[in-house]
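Q: Hi! Curious about what Probable E3 ubiquitin ligase complex SCF subunit sconB looks like structurally. Here's the sequence.
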Amino acid sequence: MSKRCRSDDTITPSPKRQRTIGDERGGQDYISKLSDEILLQILSSVSIDTLVKCQRVSKRFHALAGDSELWKRRYFAQWVLPRARAVPQSRHLKSSSTGTAYSPRVSKWLGHGHLATEDSTSIHWKTQYRLRHNWSRGTCRLDELEVSRPPLPQILIKLYSGVVITADKEHGLRAWSTKRPKKQLTGLPFPKEDATPTALYVAKGSPASCIEVTVGFDDGHFSVYNLDVTRGEFRIRFSQTSTSDATTITAIASAPPYLLTISDHKLFNLYKIPPHITQHEESSSPDQLRLLASLESNNTFAPMSLSLRCSAAEVIASIAYSFFHISNGWTIGIQELRFNKDGEHITSRLATTVAVQPKADEHENNGPSIESNNEPNNHSRGFTSLSSTTSIQHKEAPTSLSYSHPFLLTSHSDNTLTMYLVFSSADKLVIRDSRRLWGHTSSVSNVQVGDRGKAVSVSPRGNEIRIWELESAVSSLSSPLSSRRRSIRGESSVQINYEKSNTPSFSLSTTSGARDWSQHVSYQRDLDVLSDGWVGFDEEQVVVLRQRGLRAQFLECYDFT
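A: Let's find out. The predicted structure is below.
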């Protein structure tokens, strides 16, 4: 059988049809013809997921869907509006015929004064939205930063605006950047080689690019440094000579130019440091260090927390502490001292979580021995039993205590935290609204409260870190019973859920001359020990100090950006 010719099978292909947008559905591309203003109106009505997907369509849609004003309104609707509505008769929102109105001025947003910068156009609102979203979910990235090798020193740590300040006897003061690239910024040894730092505090400096660092020592003296973050250098500003009793300073709080210290002998001192003073100031200068108040306590126990707040006309020094009460077990007390700007003492008050006592017990010596004016506590309901504050009794001392007005938080070995609200005015000081916070599955070793109702707690081994929104816990009291039950189950907190960064841990040169310590160490949680349970956080990160056996101390940086 003969084969057919190849040419018989040849078929001339039909011309390729040119595809046009919308052909598959038989329509036309109306979207691309719309103006940017109309597209922005459309994008303002879609969901967040759709908004993110639109940025992948084209360069034009990437710019439109990433519009800062668009994300600013989403941020307002998601994070500002619910909070403002929870405040009775809130003055931060204007009423309109459609409900609550959006204000483009961030300064009018409740609790967002830190974003009310002079140049509001510099705020990347999509980044701010993603940051808040990640905090609410506990989603973050974990990086490690090694800070010391054996012999491991006793180290003090504070975190401020992406900069970690460490202080120890061997290396002195060091500053580390926790933002990428993570590195050591600078270091400065202490003038006295035998001086051991025992207390550390950081505050905003002047100018804004500086951080004020205050270090207390075991011989009773303290020094104030300025860290210039831009230049990467420490400069000593003032150093106090040792006191006559030379007692170890155990805690410090600062609100420039005021400084509050406490010693291991329970001696509280409040100082005023003039802004222009230096370590070379003559001792006869009328503007040198000034002691405003000194008081001694006979019945305060660790843990304790110091706080300084400055108003337009007053300086408020607060000392939150724990003590044992024979009827109520371990109890919390707050001593508050008020001064005017000239340093003249105005008043002092004491409030405790003990139930209202008979008249004879009002002046029981539970706090510092300065004349105080006890006010009865208006206790309200707790979460579980809806009973008074006295229903929450602790047989063991709290493992840590943190106070940032108006929130006072204590952590306990029974897997819980206790939150109190502190009400302070010119007339009275009251601690009330105590409640248990549940969520941890093991004991809680440390808790830190921020200045905007956020708190972070950590377990002894550091394998459970939880983020708490304290305002949602407070609002649950006025919510239906189902909301209170949700808070009992821990829904006012989330556990950090991280992914490990591929970047190896490292450290740079230190004051001891050691270099290139950084070598990647395998991540072994079972061998890790949490050093003193320290935890700190700022707007973007949670930082935990961890010690891996006797090999190294390093910082775990949980980045939410």
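A: A fun detail: Residues 53-84+101-137 form one domain.
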